[in-house]
Amino acid sequence: MMERISKLQQKLKEKNGSWAFITSTANVFYFSGFYSHPHERLLAVVIFPDDEPFLICPEMDANQAKQAGWAYTIVSYDDVHHPWHMLRDELNRRNVQTERIGIETSHMTISRLEQLQSCFSHASFFDLTDPLHELRMTKDEKELQTLRQAAELADFGVDVGVRALKEGKTELDIIATIEYELKKRGVRAMAFDTMVLTGTNSAHPHGVPGMNRIQSGDFVLFDLGVVLDGYCSDITRTVVFGKPTEQQKQIYDIVLQAQQEAIHACQIGTSIGSIDKAARLRIEQEGYGAYFPHRIGHGLGIDVHEYPSMNATNTMPLQAGMVFTIEPGIYVPSVGGVRIEDDIYMTDKGPLLLTTYPKELQII
């Protein structure tokens, strides 16, 4: 954690910041190793350019923060005391001159900003969103190993779902089986609400699973991911239950080709936008451009959707250490939808697929 803190300290020096006030759950975890959802209670890491940082958290969470590896000061409070006054008191105890406070404007609420302004009325504020994005964008070896293990569990989840398919079962039946088997392997939380979408419901990129029953001739789309030690995985596979039509096979082949071309385009220095365009061009050439309504992917890490956005207008070049998804899709309302998604780690030699569940069309 100290290396991460040191990098943010350097950013603070460059911006003449007095201190950083980190409150988003993901970023608190990134700098402290402590993952918690405090609801309305204040949880924050305070980082200085030169002094040691401190964590402010509810008293009931203080021991867990220590167990997570936080080795610095913890300012804890109960539900009677005022955490904002305790924040101010700790800064006064350290004789900190507060002139410029770095905050996450993408996360900071107006009410919390007003609390800061009340406590530090002469301070100005600057945004740390971009520097924090940059720090988290490239993963270290430990993060990679965790993401790889999370991807293996996602592969397992798809395999469980495919094996559970049976005519007459509902989408929710299959989800229950997947999540039960994952919990037996120690998975405490899914990265997002698991999707099993069948028939025309699969034509909704963010469809809502329900009591729709598996029927012969339907596409069945699986989109799932797990949270492992604070890091997320995200995989999508699509199969056909029963005999596919020629159009279903054609759509599947186009999506698979589009994904393969996008992955092939993933090289160090290549712009993110060109990767989206590689997949999109293939789909457009086959006449299905109007049925591919979303970007090619997204960054992946502590958050299941994080920086950078893998869209057609993003000129950022790929860098070693990035982790992101590649997930083209075609969604035809009268037929159903196909999406194929993998988690990609960028190495100096090219893309490494973390998710490895087979991608040839499976007919169940």
TrEMBL record:
Question: Which positions fall inside the Creatinase N-terminal domain?
Answer: 4-137
Cofactors, names only? Mn(2+)
Q: Which Pfam families match?
A: Creatinase_N (PF01321), Peptidase_M24 (PF00557)
* Enzyme class per UniProt: hydrolase
PROSITE patterns for this protein: PROLINE_PEPTIDASE
GO MF term set: aminopeptidase activity; metal ion binding; metalloexopeptidase activity
Give EC number(s), comma-separated.
3.4.-.-
Keywords assigned by UniProt, alphabetized: Hydrolase, Manganese, Metal-binding
Q: Which intervals hold domain Peptidase M24?
A: 146-348
What does the sequence similarity comment in the record state about its family? Belongs to the peptidase M24B family.
Give the PANTHER family listed for this entry: AMINOPEPTIDASE, DIPEPTIDASE YKVY-RELATED
Descriptive protein name: Putative peptidase
